[in-house]
Specification:
Chain lengths: ~230, ~80
């Protein structure tokens, strides 16, 4: 989950998020290098007594600073497009979970085998137990088996919402009258938090999402207990 | 237009990489968009003979520009014919 004074992304829990983290490191390094080079050159220019007031012809350096940025942009674009296409791949999910956004809670339906559905409200701050996270805990978590490709079908019953879990690299809008699909694959067990990411009214900040990824036998036991 | 490009390139040779990259970018964009307009199953070119192309997708065809992990020619067809 997010922690105070956090600077970077949360740790990745899905293969796509790992790819996004590496791509971000790669692109941010390029950005830092270019910015520090430019800042250094500006500082050099501001601290010199040399002047040159006639028009200059500089064919060689112009060639360099045309080719080099083009190459840098290609080096950024190719990994970016690769991840973009990777996010869209067909990967045969084994489980389908539907989530509907409401004002101001999420409801989940696991209807592959039986009719299992429940609502997921945020736990108010006064009712938190010691150690629980403020504005992030919910009463009924979304329990899912780990290392299994899950298809999430996301829609809304009233206004726009957005179902987001940053550590899995997921954010999909919940639009009334539209069914959006995303696939989820958690690589390790644990609790993964997210918050509604599209303004939806007064309690928009108070409808979080909590995924509880567990081994498959625990998931099966949980779904039987919830029926 | 091409004559102007050549005359400017002779006067300022540093412009040559610029023309190469802009030319490559434009050609690349055209080469991507043209097959997309003609062969993408979401596009309805011929309303009389081939009205709903998006209903005739085969399991072994790759419709996307680039495939990272999935080898579409090796996939099997899942549903029945209709």
């Amino acid at each position: 989950m997010a922690y105070p004074f956090q600077l970077g992304f949360q740790d990745a829990t899905s293969p796509i998020m790992e790819e996004l983290l590496h791509f971000h490191d790669h692109t941010l390094m390029i950005v830092f290098l270019i910015s520090s080079l430019v800042l250094y050159i500006i500082s050099l220019m501001l601290t010199t007594k040399l002047t040159h007031t006639s028009t200059m012809d500089a064919q060689e350096v112009e060639t360099i600073w045309t080719i080099l940025p083009a190459i840098i942009l290609i080096l950024i674009a190719l990994p970016s497009l690769r991840i973009l296409y990777m996010m869209d791949e067909i990967n045969s999910p084994s489980l389908t979970v539907k989530t509907m956004g409401h004002q101001w809670y999420w409801s989940y339906e696991y209807t592959d085998y039986e009719d299992l559905s429940f609502d997921s409200y945020m736990i108010p701050t006064q009712e938190l137990k010691p150690g629980e996270l403020r504005l992030l805990e919910v009463d009924n978590r979304v329990v899912l088996p780990m290392e299994v490709t899950v298809r999430m079908l996301i829609s809304s019953e009233d206004v726009l919402h957005s179902w987001a879990v940053p550590s899995l690299g997921l954010k999909t809008d919940a639009i009334p009258g539209r069914l959006n699909q995303t696939t989820l694959m958690g690589t390790r067990p644990g609790l993964y938090y997210g918050q509604c990411s599209e303004i939806c009214g007064s309690n928009h900040s108070f409808m979080p999402i909590v995924l509880e990824l567990v081994p498959l036998p625990y998931f099966e036991k949980w779904s039987v207990s919830m029926l | 237009m091409l004559r102007q490009i050549f005359s400017q390139a002779k006067k300022h040779p540093s412009l040559i990489p610029l023309f190469i990259f802009i030319g490559a970018g434009g050609t690349g964009a055209a080469l991507y968009v043209l097959p997309l307009a003609l062969f993408n199953p979401d596009v309805n070119c011929d309303r009389k003979n081939n009205p709903e192309r998006w209903n005739k997708l085969g399991p072994n065809d790759q419709y996307k520009f680039y495939s990272v992990n999935v080898n579409y020619s090796k996939l099997k067809k899942e549903g029945p014919d209709f």
